[in-house]
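Crash report, auto-generated. Payload:
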Amino acid sequence: MDPTKPPIDLIAAALRREREREKLSLSEVAKRAGIAKSTLSQLESGAGNPNIETLWALAVALNVPFSRLVEPPPTAPRVIRAGEGPTVKSGQADFIGTLLATSPPGVRRDIYLMRVEPVGARKADAHLAGTVEHVVMISGRLRVGPEDSPVDLDVHDYASFAGDVAHGYEALAPHTSFALVMEHR
Amino acid sequence: MDPTKPPIDLIAAALRREREREKLSLSEVAKRAGIAKSTLSQLESGAGNPNIETLWALAVALNVPFSRLVEPPPTAPRVIRAGEGPTVKSGQADFIGTLLATSPPGVRRDIYLMRVEPVGARKADAHLAGTVEHVVMISGRLRVGPEDSPVDLDVHDYASFAGDVAHGYEALAPHTSFALVMEHR
DNA sequence: ATAAGTCGTTCGCTGTACCGAACGGATGTA
DNA sequence: TACATCCGTTCGGTACAGCGAACGACTTAT
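Recovered output after restart:
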């Protein structure tokens, strides 16, 4: 979500899109949401500046999560082959991260394919507060987590932890790789 | 996000929490957001019903994604060992899904570890509109995607596609496994 | 001490988001 | 044809969100 420009147009579009997807009339949605249909009419036309209660009621009436009304539309299918895609390398450790998915423009969650070799540990500083990291092991063996309480993971293991405290990644075996979902909230 | 009860308390708490995290004064935040500090004062005290423009400006001023102001707080560290965790089995294909992470209470994204054997294909019906699926290959070989345009994936490949159209998973090799991030928006 | 700078709260005032009613247009049905 | 119902839009009235000013409480400097 772009934090720089007003979301009113997005909301207007979303309201109409979601309503038509549910095949509901404007009047019906207004009734379900307990708001005047005139209000909804104006909102859908892009005029107005709804307050939270109104928008919330509409999200419920349309049976969609709230943020669906305040975010841009979906993405297109997309494949990144092994070895392709934008990579992030680290000198600190033998380490390659491939950015697989990022939700533009104001990132909510990124997905990386990470490959680490057992040459020293990778220390990651704390990220933005509220970040949560999810690890799904693909191959090798990994020591990961907050500095004071790391865990060791094997293939198919999963771990998640808050990313806003100092933490690190250390490969314990060659050709260690894992999927990393980094969630910013 | 719980779509049943009003978010105003959540917002009030979030506003104060994020402001204190950034170590900013109420006056400062109000100034940055271009709103009256009296307004912010009332919002933080839980009184009021802000409109979208106001909330948006505050999100920008606090340097957090908008939805951070409308959602419940973070999660705790957590490990699920290979073989552990709640699983979903399918009779339709030789198929095991392990639910690794779900963001309570109104799900935004789930993370699964999926294991499939090459015995017929798994047809997944369309999910809720707006769902997006992300696949990171762990082992084996997988045919996946919309019915009319599937792709074949090998280890370390990645693919994403809209989950709200009919699509399927089919293992092309034994012991096929992958991480699946299912995103509801 | 007192003046000047914060801080966050409380107070009328004003603009406006929301409401309800009335409207014109489609469609259905006696 | 007239008479229902729907639909979505447009129009005044009103309650209230947001504003600026003033407030008391606290720090820091003079």
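Post-recovery validation: Chain A touches chain B through 72 residues (CB under 8 Å).
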